[in-house]
Amino acid sequence: MRPSSLFAKELDSLSPLSASGYGSVAKVFVVCEKDEGLQASFQRWMIENYPVNEVRVIEEADHMAMMSTPEKLSQFISEIVDKYASFINE
């Protein structure tokens, strides 16, 4: 076992995630249907257990959507930014 950051001591002093911090960010989950590392059923379990504002699905995407379906992923990211940009200015 090893620390996940080179700054483990600094991370230890930070407060845990909160509703006013992490919870205030709009979250969108992109399900990659052909992902064999995180199968779609597990991705849906994550969504159920850690709710998000929106779910998008790329049926053709594998684990590396930026490599397998870059156009579709880029389209989704652009749409998501347009939709949730108002959160940034609040």
Automatic annotation (TrEMBL):
Coiled coil: none annotated. Gene3D superfamilies: alpha/beta hydrolase. GO terms for biological process: jasmonic acid metabolic process; salicylic acid metabolic process. Keywords: Hydrolase. InterPro entries: AB_hydrolase_fold (IPR029058), MES/HNL (IPR045889). The keyword Lipoprotein does not apply. This is Uncharacterized protein.
